[in-house]
Structures are given as C-alpha cells and as structure tokens.
Design brief:
1414 residues, alpha+beta, Cathepsin D, subunit A, domain 1, 6 domains, 6-stranded antiparallel β-sheet, 5-stranded antiparallel β-sheet, 48 strands, 18% strand, flat
C-alpha cells in the first residue's frame, strides 16, 4: 500500500506540478501527528488471511499554481462549479470549500484556486473574505442570488422540467443533453429531482415511434437503477435501426396513382404484367415482403440474386431506375430526376408560404387596346359550370379569361376583340379588368389583365401571363407550385385524375373605406394616402417616423386603391448610377396637361426628385414656359437647406426615377380624390398632399429611413396626418362672432401648409381656402358635394366628374427598379410638397380665371421687395384675422417695462428715443456710411431696430439699449459677402486665464467695446436703406453706402475681428496659435494677457501699470467702456478677493428654477438618483420636446461653472429628440438640486510663487447606456488645486471590457491634457511640462505603455493609440490612483450622497455666496 501511495504521489506531482515531500518523508509521517477534527486521509481495510488491518493512505495536497482553472463568467456558473469541484477534489482541497474546517495553508490554497478562476474585477471582493468557503458562498450568492432568488429560479426550472417535450426533428442525444442540463440546474439551486424522476420523464415524452421501447423499458427494467445515459443508449440503438428500416421500406403510392393504375388495368392498355414462371415464387400481384421491405425472391440492387429463387428471366432491370423487379411503366421513380425519391406523403415544404389560396401577384391595368386576338390551344372547351369559383391553370392559354362579369373588381368594357379556340371557333371579348381574390388569412391579391368572355363557361389562368410578370411555376410529381416575384409560395395545386390543375379561389371585393372609419389601421391607411399596410407597419416597427402606432394587418385593398392604383407592371432594370450626397444629382419632369384645370388654371405640375434622398418638391404650372422659373425657385430652396450648390448637368431622354415618382404621385392623388369623392378640380391639392405624404413614407431606394429623414437628418412626426377630403370643423374668429353664434364652420380638409403646423381647409359655401390650426376632424364623414351651393361661377365645376385625366404616357420600362415603395409593387411612393400658393377660383372663361378669395396671400406676395421668402406673417394679415387685445392699466404698465414692439412705440418713450439717438450718434462718429444713389444692378438691404433691456444680476434695469441691425438674411454669398467666421475665446480658455491670474495673484480687468461691429472695415460694396423712423425727408430716394460694418451683416463679426487683431498686433501683442482669441505680450519681464469674446475683453497681467496703460491705448483707438475689475461676464458672476477668485451663476440658476415654476420645491442633495438608468423607449408618455430642449440647453450652460452636474445634464441631453415623462422627471430632479445649491461655484485660490502643476483625472464606466451599451468617459484637469476644465461625454464606440473603456477615456483625456499643457506654457512663458494623468485601471495603464498591438487591443481604432505616443515622448505621465480617490468618478456615474459631496468638494465646487457673506 505504501508503494502504491508513493506512485500515486509521484504521478500527481508530475501532472500537477506540486511540491510534495519525497516518498520516504510521506511514509515516515505518523498518522497520529495530524490531529484534524475529522479524518482528512482515506482509510481502507486490508484483509490478510483472517486478520483485518486498517490501512491509512495519507492525503497529499498538490500545488494549484500551474493548473488551467476554468474562468467564471456571468452565465456558466453551473458548469464552472462542477469543474471546480472535480479539480479541487483531485488536489485534495475541496474540503476547504465543502466543510471549511481545514488547516490554514489548505484554506489558502483553496482560496488561491478560487481567485485564479474568477474575473479580475471580483478578486478584490473575494480576497477580503475570511475563508475559501466564504468566498465560494459569495460567488454562489452573486450568481444564483439569495434564497428567494434561488427559489424563484427553482420554480421556473421545475416548470420547464414538467413541460419539456421533444422538439420537431430533435434527436435522442440532443434531448438527453437538454434534460440532463435542466436536472443539473435544478440540483444547483436545491431542486429535489433525482435520476429516476428524469428517466421517468424521458420515457413519458418519447416520440410515438419509440413508444414500444418505452413500454418495454418500464415493464422489464428497474427504473431506480437506470440512468439517463443507459436509457439514451437504448433508444439511440432503436433510432438507428428504425432509420435503417425506413430507408429500405416500400414506396408508397398516392391516391391518384392507384386510380390511374386501376384505370389502365380496366382499359387493358399495357397494364398486364407477364406471368411469372414457377421459379418466380408467386404471382405478380404478390405483396408479401420481408422485414427490409423487399419481396421474397427479389434481386438485390446490384442485380445479384439473394437466394436460389430469383425473378423470371422475362422481367429484367427497370430502364428508369435500374432496379430488378418491375418495368419502367410501373416505376415510381420520376422520369427526369431518377436519383430523387418522391414520397409525396412525406414531402416537406422548405419554401416560405403565405398561407393563401390565390395565385398571382398584384399587377396593374394597361391602356385599352382594341381588337385583340387571343389564342387558346385546346380542341374543345367544355368547362364544368357547377364550380364557378374554380380556375383552371393552363399553359396553352395566352391570357387570363373568365365568363362571369360578377367577379370583376374593375372592368374596362372599351376593350374588345375575339378569341380563337383550337377547333377554329371564335368568341368575342367584351372587356378587360381585374379580379380580386382573398387569402386564407383574409388578405387580398389582384389578378389583372383578365378578359371577359361571356360565352366562356369556365375561368382560366394563363401560365404564360404569370411568367410575364416574373412569377415562377414548378410542376413536379403531380403537383404545381406557383411563386410570386419575391419567390413566396402562392398556391399548390394537385393534378386531377383527368390531368388538369384546378384551383379553387374565393373572389372578393375591395373594402369600403367609409365603413371602416372606426378601424385605426384603415384610418391611417387613408391618412397616408392609401399607402399599403406593409409599408405602414415598417414605418412604425423600424422607428422611421414618430406618432404612428404599429399596424399589423394583412394586405388588403380599399375601393379607392382598387380603382386608382392599377397599372401594368414595368420590366425593371438596375440603376446605373446612384448619388452619394444630397443635390449631387436631381431628376425633374413635367407632368401634364391634366384635365380639368385647377381653380387657378393650372394644368401641369413640375416634380423635382433628389437622387440621393428621394426627397421631392412640386410646383403647379399653368403653361410649360413657367417650368424654368419654378425650377430656379426649387433650386434656391434646396441649396439653402443643404448649403450645397447644384451644378448644371445634361439631360436624359428617359428618366425612370422621376417617371416612377410621377406615376406614384398621380396614383396617390387619384386615390385621395376617389376614396372621399372629392371633385377632380382639387387635383392640385391632392398632388401636393401626395408629395407631402410620400416624403414621409418608405421607399425601396432607401433602407430604414424615409426621404424626409434622408434629406433633413431627423425622423418625421406623422401624428398630425388626417384623412384627405374629410369634413373638418374650423373655429370662427373675427369681430363678428357673438356669444350666441356658432363657434365652428364645417369645411373640407384639402392638405397641409408647408413650413407651418397648419392645415389647408376649403369652405364650399364661401369658396375660400383657409389656413388654420384650430380644427376638429370628422375623418369618417366625407363632404356632400352634390348638396353644396353652386352659383354661376361654380356650376360647371361642381358638375365635373370626380376623376382627372393626365395626358402623358407612362413608360413600361424603368431604368431604376429600386424606387418602388417598400412592399408590393404597384403601390404609391412618398414625397414632400414645397410651399405653393393657394389656387384661385374657377370661372366660365378659362382665359381669365377668378375665384375663391384665399385667407393667406398668394405666391406673388410671399416674398419681400428684396426677393427673399417671408418666414413670417405680415402685420396687416394678422390684424385681419385676429381681434385686438384690450389690456387693463396694470397690463399696460407691464408691457411698457419691456422692449417696444415697433419703432413708432419706441419713439414715443424718452428712454428708447435716447437709446436710438445714441446708436445713430455712434454710427455717425464712426463714419460708418454715407448717402448715395443706388447703382444699377445693386439691391439695398433693409435695416431694423432691435431693442433690449439690460439688467444686473438682481434683475434691476441698468440700461435701455437700441441696436440698428441690417437684414443680413437678404445677402447673397459671393455678391455682398464672402467669409463670415470669427474666433471667440472658449469658456475653458477663460477659466485657464482666471486660474493663472488667481495662482499668481494678478488682477483681472474687463473692458467692453461700444458698437464693436461698427469699427470693422468692409471689403465689399454694400448698400442699405435709411433707418426706419430717421429717414432724411430731403433725400428719401437715396440709400446709404457702407464704409464699415453694421450689426446683422454676415461679414460683420469677421470684419471686427480682423480690425481688432491688427490693432492688438500694432500694440506688440502676439496671437496664440493654440487659441486665436487669446493674445500675449511680454515686455521687460512682465506679461500681459488679453482674451477676446466678440466685444468683451478680459485683461490680466503681472503688473497693474501695464493693464492701465493698455486700457488707455485701447480707449484712444476705439470707443470703449472701462468696467474695472471683472465682476460679470457672459452671465457668470466673478468675485476677486485677496485669497481667491470665485465663479458663480447664481442668478442664472435662479432664472432656470423660476422658468420651471419650481421656486418652492424641496431641494435634494444629489443631481441624479443613485443607479438610475434611463432609456429612450421607457413606455411613459411623451412630453413637449420644445420645453424639454429649452430647459436642458439652459442647464448645459450652467455646467460652465458647475462640474458637479456635468454627468446628470449629459445623461438627460441624450433624450432631446423624443423626451418622455421619465426624462422630464430626471430634469426636474436636477433643478431641485440646483435650487438648493444655487450659490455654488468654482473657487480658484491664490498660491503665490509656487509653480502650478497640471494634473488630470480620467475614468469611465462600462456599458452605462442601456440603449446602445456605450460607455461614458469623464475627465477633470487641475491647475494646481483649481479645476480648469472637465467633461462627461458618451464614447463613440462600444467597449468590450472595462480596460478598453478606460483606455479610450484616457486617450481622449490625453488630447485635452497636451493642449492645456502647451497653452499654459505659452501664456505663462514657461516650457510645456509633462502632464500627470491618473487612472484607476492598471490594465489600461499597461495598455498605454505597451506599444505592441496584442489580441486585446488590435480592434481598437488607431486614433485612440495616440496616448502611447504621448507616453513615449514624455508628454503624458500615466499613473495609478485608487478608485476611492478617483475624482473623475463623479463625471461617469450617479453617486450616493456621501461620495458625491466628497468628490464635489475635491473638484473645488463650494458655496461661494456663503463664503462672500462670511
């Protein structure tokens, strides 16, 4: 026994790399010297004759250092625990986990094994546990949860165990592994499921083909001794034998084949087999078979006889399959595919099916063609009239045809012709139309191009015509399968005994849209211009629009779709070119003439399509010669939106993109008119509405976005859409409305007003078109046009039919097949309408159309005198449509305290009159302009007065300021301006200047340039009109030629900046190359720094005398205001003392709280709840996005002095697109925190002669965003003890580990740190120093210092490896910091109150107001 123990220990040492004592030492160790509370060795009894000798095998503990321990993940605890137990038992250290009462060194070895098998982030937590057993229990609790959680999991897995069954096609081995894993999971959480229960469950759920085996096992075997593995082996053996039996089984015959054979035997046409000889062993009809499925005496497959009694010499091998025993005419093998078996009773359908009994896809009706002759290659057609819903699939017919007029959904009886049968008989064609069928799931399909032949007593579907529209037909083994162009299975038809393919179809009629008005799906179908249901579903399901519910309905057609959208399917061709950006390529086409004309006499419409986005613009024309003018209008509008110039290009004769769009627009417009029975004269409004809708609907040319989103870059909101042509009740406004008069007027909804949120409604009684937002819609109620009043000017129009005719030919061949709508072919596409004037009214004389008086001005009045599109409504228009507001005396006082609404009102008040005089005096003193005549070809720019009341931080009025501003929006680039960019100092640069001044004990002064833009010299020739209210009566016709810039001009900021730059350079300053708005001057060892923000100058330096001298120099050059020490700058309150400089925004914070109406709210101590997770789609109700964005923008500006709210504001900023009540609640929580900490701000202390050090902190969470699983980076840089810059932003990529997230955050911080170091060194006159960057992740630090791209970093973007170069060049010194001291942690996650307050103080955010009072 000792020898065997030595061998075992030596083998263990070789395998496990253990440090076991030599065998002699092991043998000499006395068992009594190991006093454990319970046995740790293994004792066995050895019999030597009759003497019983207890043998003790001493346990040897192996070293676990070199073992490959399994790594624990979030999902593999069950397997991990089993492997760990086995490995620890093999090393004799499992007792430390199982019982815990072991020696200290054994417990430590077990703890080492556990720590080697867990992720790095768990090591610190587990290492703090007192024992290996405690660490193991902690892992079990973390992965399996507490007892309540384990009980819940146990119940869930027990339910799954009780309901487990064999899946379709699942093998016995797979099921065995599945049930075994489930039993193991149950045991891990304390489930009482033993092996016998699993075996019994296995036998209860076996497939029926193994029922006999299950019964035999239950009756003959003791289940308590049977394991799952034994049972699996038994059933697997039976499964392989079963498959072998089936493979050699007999070939089954279908009912049709049996009947065919019986018929052949009755007719005696070669069905009688030769009689078998006496050696044959039986008659020809003998069906006796052996267990392998072969007849007794049959030859084997290789032709050799299996016995002495073979087949007769007269029956050789089959010429079809080569098997001996039957003839080719009796062979069941297919004639063409001889190696495939056609077990029709066991055939599986792998093609996707639509679960329908219809046959073809949707096509559309072509133009009528007269006197067609159709051929049907049959000798005689005698159909069965007893089944009118049966259609015959015929390969010889050239067209679909039927004799039942009642089947047609739409019928064109102008199509005539004859049809000739094979026997020479000829019958007449009485029309052509479409027949609608119903799926089994109640969906609709339309069979088009069907001829009506009254004398035909059956219904025929032409296989050739199906092939023409790209349908696929497969005939095999007595079964015909028909597939649509997308290769979805439409129908499977079995061959009848008389070799015909009969397809029973249920005809139906279109859905009446008015009867379905209460159905939400049909209502949205009507609102979206009869867009098909598949596209409506994709719009909501793929999140392409907002405001649309998810619609799940089978494809059906309404009466408007069936009549208006049928056309012949084109033959598609792939597009040869596709634009890669907006306005790179546009398509244009003129559609018309259209009859009848619109009320304003328009007979054409011009459609422009952007190739990249498929966005559309439309304009109405009376004649073709207006096309170029309107195209220039659309071009200017598109270029202003995209800031891209459209270059001229050649034209192509056949433009499939715009032709297909034209067709879609006309189809949708026709559907809009037809469904609500709107007169055809409103086709212009219908076309505009169709374009508006199509721009917000999917198209195959774009994937996952609408044309609107592709053009504008944001998802459209469609919640405002309403049914075209429905009755709408418009609120009455005006002075004539009395208290007892009606408050609403019934009108007709005819479209949407572009550029606003208003609707276009038509008043049939007054013949007026109104633009309104105050409307209530009755979408299920069409307008009764027959009862509408008609006068002499509209009688002819009201009598017009409700359909219009487009006199242009739609090409049957398209050069772009990806522009059809996302869904079935033949449906309409989507496009937006541009702003167009309301149409005029009809008249009996077409040459001089007159008609409705429109509320909004016509197109000719939509531009001002400078040719610029108005973005506002004129005063006279507002006065005509609104009532005067009568205010009490207190209200008038309130208004007077604010800015005046017009120049006339301002001139009546002395304070504003004085402000205007000061502005004009400043302009004259500066010699900004001179009177001149307007040269030919030039256009004068208008001027306007802007009034502003300036207040101090307490809200007291300190100044009335009037500014004369030019209407710069009328300028044209390249004509009267070129460059407009002007640099300004960033807020973090301002904080760096203040921090440097505070550190060195400098004073910070503030100066303001009066009318700064008036000092900029103009390089262009610009003319403006005389100021309103100050026109020279003697020279009214003259204009002002500008010498210098004015406020409002596009080039004014750049001109002023250039002027100021040249002035500062003359005074000896140098502009910083790192921050172009900061200037530095070194003179006699003294530094002077100037920061520029438009007309505000921040001045600081080492000597106060230099600052005073600079102020005097600037005041000689410009008209400036010396504001003394910096105290208020861009809404930031600055307080300078001998100890520190503080920055605060208390007044701004108070205004935010008042704006939200939360002055009396209860303050909270943290800006965000701890561990709060927000998502985009949280299921809560939506809130007003405008209000949400406004308050979030205000909070973002507050972050300039409040880094403590940086993370919380960054989180709520992610949901500005579609905010909900949950997001608004988070914003209000921030405001509650701001309300309680309004006096907090940054404090920059003075340190004297100590050289400031730049230190940065960077941190990151891991997958903190619940929507896209991206991490949040946080960084903060300190100059000495002053925090000068901070950031909290979401990373642009998804990090795969915490190391990668920290590494990306460190790379971003390195860029900021290098820039700050260079900027501070340049401003202070010192050389840039190495920046210390503190990170709390050692793996990220190692990755920063390691230049080798190993497996963990090779997928990281190259730009993030910039930090490695910085580390190598000694620009960045990466060091480790404990997590408890990582200040940037406050910028990456929401913390608890204690931790948050601690880090807030370390950031330097204190209550500066309290300090000032103290």
């Amino acid at each position: 026994m000792a020898g065997s123990g030595d061998q075992a220990r030596q083998r263990d040492g070789a395998v496990g790399g253990s440090r076991t004592p030599p065998p002699s030492a092991a043998r000499s160790r006395s068992p009594s010297r190991s006093p454990p509370p319970r046995p740790r060795g293994r004792s066995r009894t050895v019999r030597r004759g009759r003497e019983v000798v207890p043998a003790v095998v001493q346990r040897t503990i192996r070293d676990s250092g070199s073992a490959q321990w399994p790594m624990l993940t979030k999902t593999n605890y069950g397997d991990w625990a089993v492997l760990m137990q086995v490995m620890m038992e093999s090393r004799y250290i499992w007792d430390a986990v199982d019982h815990g009462e072991v020696e200290h060194h054994e417990d430590r070895m077990a703890m080492e094994a556990i720590l080697r098998a867990v992720p790095p982030e768990m090591i610190c937590t587990l290492a703090a546990k007192p024992s290996a057993k405690a660490a193991w229990d902690a892992i079990k609790t973390m992965r399996l949860g507490s007892e309540r959680v384990r009980q819940a999991r146990r119940q869930s897995w027990m339910k799954e165990f009780e309901n487990i069954e064999f899946k379709s096609g699942e093998s016995v081995d797979d099921f065995s592994m599945r049930i075994g894993g489930l039993v193991a999971n149950l045991k891990s959480v304390g489930g009482k499921v033993d092996e016998e229960d699993a075996v019994c469950k296995f036998l209860r759920v076996v497939p029926p083909k193994y029922s006999q085996i299950a019964l035999s096992t239950e009756t003959l075997v003791d289940l308590s001794t049977l394991s799952i593995e034994d049972l699996t082996g038994r059933i697997t053996a039976a499964e392989s034998r079963y498959e072998k039996d089936v493979a050699g089984g007999s070939l089954l015959l279908t009912e049709e084949e049996w009947m065919a054979r019986a018929k052949l035997r009755e007719q005696g046409e070669g069905s009688t087999r030769p009689k078998s000889s006496d050696k044959g062993g039986g008659k020809s009809g003998d069906k006796r078979q052996n267990k392998d499925g072969k007849k007794k005496g049959d030859a084997s497959k290789d032709g050799s006889s299996s016995g002495g009694r073979g087949p007769s010499s007269g029956k050789g091998a089959c010429h079809n399959c080569g098997i001996v025993g039957h003839y080719a005419r009796d062979c069941r093998k297919p004639r063409k595919e001889r190696k495939q078996e056609a077990h029709l009773t066991q055939a599986s359908e792998e093609q996707p099916a639509l679960l329908m009994a219809v046959c073809v896809g949707l096509t559309q009706i072509a133009d009528a063609q007269s006197h067609e002759q159709v051929f049907l290659n049959e000798e005689k057609v005698i159909p069965n009239t007893s089944a009118p819903d049966v259609w015959y699939l015929d390969t010889g017919a050239s067209n679909h045809m039927t004799g039942d007029r009642r089947m047609f959904t739409a019928l064109d009886e102008t199509v005539t012709g004859t049809i000739k049968f094979g026997d020479g008989s000829v019958v007449e064609i009485c029309g052509k139309g479409s027949v609608m069928f119903m799926y089994k799931n109640k969906g609709h399909r339309v069979l088009t191009e069907v001829y009506l032949i009254p004398r035909l007593r059956s219904n025929i579907i032409s296989i050739g015509q199906l092939d023409e529209i790209r349908c696929k037909t497969v005939v095999e083994d007595g079964m015909m399968c028909i597939f649509d162009p997308e290769r979805l299975l439409l129908a499977k038809v079995r061959r009848s005994p008389n070799r015909l393919y009969r397809l029973p179809l249920e005809t139906t009629s279109p859905v009446c849209l008015l009867a379905k008005g209460d159905d939400a799906a049909w209502r949205w179908h009507a609102r979206f211009g009869h867009l098909h249901f598949r596209a409506l579903h994709d719009l909501a399901a793929k999140d392409m629009v907002t405001g649309l519910p998810v619609i799940n309905r089978e494809q059906q057609l309404c009466d408007g779709c069936a009549i208006a959208k049928m056309h012949r399917t084109p033959f598609p061709r792939a597009s040869s070119y596709r634009a890669e950006q907006g306005l790179e390529l546009v398509h244009g086409d003129l559609c018309g003439p259209i009859s009848p004309a619109t009320p304003s006499g328009n007979r054409y419409f011009l459609l422009i399509v952007d190739d990249y986005s498929r966005f559309m613009w439309v304009e109405m024309l009376r004649t073709k010669d207006e096309a170029f003018r309107l195209f220039r209008k659309i071009k200017a509008l598109a270029e202003s939106e995209r800031q891209v110039k459209l270059r001229a290009s050649g034209a192509i004769a056949q433009n499939g993109v715009v032709e297909r769009r034209n067709q879609s627009v006309v189809e949708m417009a026709r559907s809009l008119l037809k469904s609500m029975k709107v007169p055809a004269r409103f086709w212009g409004e219908a076309v505009k509405t169709a374009v508006h809708i199509l721009n917000r609907a999917p198209t195959r040319a774009l994937s996952g976005v609408t044309p609107y989103e592709a053009w504008h870059g944001r998802r459209p909101d469609v919640s405002y859409l309403r049914t075209f042509g429905c009755t709408v009740f418009v609120k009455k406004v005006g002075p004539c409305v009395t208290k007892l008069s009606d408050r609403e007027t019934p009108m007709v909804f005819v479209g949407y007003e572009d550029g606003s949120k208003a609707y276009r409604v038509y008043d049939p009684s007054a013949h007026k078109l109104h633009i309104t937002r105050d409307a209530a819609f009755d979408e299920g109620r069409p307008w009764s046009w027959d009862s509408a009043p008609a006068d002499s000017t509209t009688a002819v129009t009201h009598a017009a039919p409700s359909s219009f005719t487009v006199e242009y030919e739609v090409s049957t061949a398209s050069d772009d097949n990806d522009d059809s709508p996302a869904g079935d072919a033949g449906k309409s596409i989507v496009t937006p309408a541009t702003r167009r004037a309301p149409s005029a009214a009809p008249t009996p004389v077409p040459a001089t159309p007159t008609g409705p008086v429109f509320v909004t001005p016509p197109t000719d009045e939509s531009h001002d005198s400078e040719g610029v599109t108005l973005r506002y409504r004129k005063h006279q228009e507002l006065l005509d449509t609104t009532e005067p507001c009568e205010l009490e005396y207190s209200g008038l006082c309130l208004v007077a305290a604010e800015e005046p609404a017009s120049v006339e009102l301002a001139l009546k008040e002395a304070c504003w009159k004085q402000a205007m005089d000061e502005e004009l005096s400043s302009i004259r003193d500066n010699q900004t302009w001179e009177l001149a005549d307007l040269p030919p070809g030039q256009r004068a720019i208008g001027l306007k007065w802007v009034f502003k009341v300036k207040k101090d931080p307490q809200g007291n009025v300190i100044k009335h300021k009037a500014r004369l501003v030019a209407k710069g929006y009328a300028q044209r680039q390249g004509v009267n301006f070129d460059e407009v960019f002007a640099p300004v100092a960033r807020m973090e640069t301002v904080r760096v200047l203040i921090a440097l001044a505070a550190h060195d004990g400098w004073e910070v002064h503030h100066m303001d340039v009066k009318s700064a833009f008036l000092n900029g010299d103009l390089a262009e020739e610009v003319y403006v009109r005389q100021p309103p209210g100050f026109v020279d009566d003697d020279n009214e016709h003259m204009v002002l030629k500008l010498r210098k810039a004015l406020y409002g001009l596009r080039q004014a900021p750049r001109a002023w900046n250039s002027k100021l730059d040249s002035s500062l350079v003359e005074l000896g300053f140098e502009r910083s190359p790192l921050e172009h708005a900061v200037y530095r001057r070194a003179k006699e060892g003294a530094l002077l720094l100037v920061g520029v923000y438009v007309d505000d100058l921040i001045i600081t330096g080492s000597r106060t005398a230099d600052i005073v001298e600079f102020k005097e120099q600037m005041m000689k050059m410009y008209s400036m205001s010396d504001l003394g020490l910096l105290s208020y700058y861009l809404g930031i309150e600055v307080n300078q003392t001998a100890e520190a400089i503080t920055l605060c925004q208390s007044s701004y914070a108070r205004n935010i709280v008042e704006l939200m109406g939360m002055e009396s709210c209860n303050p909270c101590q943290t800006p965000m709840e701890n561990r709060l997770k927000l998502t985009k789609n949280d299921g809560s109700v939506a809130v007003d996005p405008t209000e949400y964005r406004s308050i979030v923008r205000s909070l973002r500006y507050l972050v300039n002095t409040r880094p403590d709210i940086g993370f919380a504001v960054g989180i709520v900023s992610r949901y500005m697109e579609a905010p909900t009540s949950q997001h608004m609640a988070a914003v209000k929580h921030i405001i509650r925190y701001v309300s309680g900490t309004g006096g907090h701000g940054c404090r920059y202390e003075r340190h004297g002669s100590l050289e400031p050090k730049l230190v940065g902190y960077t941190d990151s969470d891991l997958a903190g965003d619940a929507d896209d699983r991206k991490s949040t980076s946080g960084m903060a840089f300190f100059l000495g003890s002053s925090c000068v810059t901070w950031a909290s932003q979401k990373q642009k990529i998804v990090a795969l580990s915490s190391c990668e997230a920290e590494y990306i955050a460190a790379a971003t911080a390195a860029c900021q740190g290098v820039w700050l170091s260079r900027l501070i060194g340049e401003l202070s006159g010192r050389a840039p120093t190495e920046v210390k960057l503190l990170i709390d992740n050692k793996s990220a630090i190692a990755l920063c210092k390691n230049p080798v791209h190993h497996d963990r970093s090779k997928h990281i973007d190259t730009r993030y490896h910039f930090i490695r170069e910085c580390v190598e060049e000694k620009k960045i010194d990466v060091q480790h910091v404990r997590t408890e001291e990582q200040i940037a942690d406050i910028l990456t996650k929401s913390l608890g109150r204690v931790k948050f307050v601690e880090f807030r103080e370390k950031l330097g955010v204190v209550d500066v107001k309290k300090g000032c009072h103290d």
